[in-house]
Design a protein that fits this description.
It contains 17 helices and eleven strands. The chain has about 400 residues and is α/β, with parallel strands linked by helices.
Length: about 400
């Protein structure tokens, strides 16, 4: 039986967020029980709401990263709106923002100013390149950071680089913001701690550069970098996608010579191939990968996808079916582990994946995706504003 007290119950997060990096960070804080108040522009709200209409009229990006939040509309160009925000921040635990470079500081929302009023406040700034350095003021979008971080140079085919199919740089930055905030909360609140907040400066470039550690070290001291090898491994072979006779694609990976021998005997049913001098080590298999690929495709071409997978399982060779999005939605493992749960939204219930990491002590928070400004009146009432004041703020376009 899980305890419904969650790790971040009682923690209040204010977020000046848009797009992916900051919303992905704060949604995970909300998953753990934090109260996340998302500040949006009156009217349109977060521009990610308009990226597409694929989820019953809502945007796929927005649906993914904005459940369990409260939406407060404020026109931060107006002093009255800034006053409301400052009142919220005076008692909040965390501020997360990924506005344009320098925007929050120009509004007087830098760490030093806010900390003077609320010393326990943790301020997390997410930007493309960080708060200093020659690239500080450059605009940064996900694809641009994938390029700057060298990700494109090792991803794709020998003929053409490719971006990742999702927002890799935004996700990396959101994850490091999330974990940095958790660390700051631990540091602030641990026994014997100072109780003081902290300033966290998260850079998309530095986040994705960390994830590029293997190819960077592979190219250490001027050595050639890993070649672009499409969906195959750049330096281990066979390790990648292979077509079966019925048109399906199987992904497999060999890690050592014992597996190579069993692969030849059980999967290819050609034991003599294991000692072929072209293929008797990974280096030689990698060198002669085109010849080996032809042999593997010839054997797989006589089998269905299910037949190839069955032989690989029998040989205990790591493998996977190359799924598409429909296959992932219907994945039997996700269903067997009951990883789907409905969440509310402005257009009704929609399915959502539970966060990774099943915990025996608590259930994750899985509350609705908010409409623009859905919680504005309630939040202002909480701050002590009367209905007449709220009506005036709305009439002035402040909220």
């Amino acid at each position: 039986m899980t305890n419904q007290t969650r790790p971040l119950d009682g923690i209040t997060v204010i977020s000046l967020e848009h797009a992916i990096a900051a919303p992905f960070c704060t949604r995970q804080l909300a998953d753990l029980g934090a109260r996340v108040i998302k500040v949006e522009r009156p009217g349109a709200g977060d521009f990610a709401r308009a990226y597409d209409q694929r989820v019953d009229g809502m945007a796929s990006h927005f649906v993914w990263v904005n459940r369990s939040k409260e939406s407060l509309t404020l026109d931060l160009k107006q002093p009255a709106a800034l006053a409301v925000l400052r009142q919220l921040l005076s008692t909040a635990d965390v501020l997360v923002q990924n506005l344009a470079p320098g925007a929050s500081a120009r509004m007087g929302l830098g760490f030093e100013e806010l900390s003077a009023v609320n010393p326990k406040l943790i301020v997390c700034d997410i930007s493309g390149y960080g708060e200093d350095g020659p690239y500080r003021d450059k605009k940064a979008y996900d694809l641009l950071i994938q390029s700057e971080a060298g990700f494109l140079s090792v991803t794709g085919t020998p003929e053409e680089p490719c971006k990742s199919g999702n927002s890799m740089a935004d996700i990396a930055a959101g994850m490091y913001a999330y974990t940095s905030i958790l660390a700051a909360l631990l540091q602030r609140d641990k026994v014997g701690g100072s109780g003081q907040g902290a300033h966290i400066d998260v850079s998309m470039l530095e986040s994705l550069a960390e994830w590029m550690g293997y190819p960077m070290y592979y190219a250490y001291d001027g050595a050639p970098p890993p070649p672009r090898s499409a969906a195959a491994h750049a330096t281990i072979y066979p390790y990648g996608p292979f077509a079966a006779g019925d048109g399906g694609t199987v992904m497999l990976g060999l890690q050592n010579e014992r597996e190579w021998k069993v692969f030849c005997e059980v999967v290819l049913q050609d034991a003599a191939l294991a000692t072929d001098p072209r293929f008797d080590s990974n280096a030689r298999r990698n060198e002669h990968r085109e010849a080996l690929k032809a042999i593997i495709l010839g054997a797989f071409g006589r089998l269905t996808t299910a037949g190839v997978l069955a032989r690989l399982d029998e040989a205990q060779i790591a493998n996977a079916r190359m799924n598409d999005m429909a296959g992932l939605w219907a994945h039997p493992q996700l269903q067997a582990r009951q990883r789907w749960q409905n969440v509310g939204s402005p257009v009704g219930d929609i399915p959502a994946l539970l966060p990774p990491g099943r915990n025996s002590r608590f259930d994750y928070r899985m509350d609705p995706i908010p409409a623009v400004g859905q919680h504005t009146d309630a939040l202002l009432t909480e701050l002590g504003l009367g209905s007449a004041q709220i009506l005036q703020l709305r009439a002035e376009g402040t909220i």
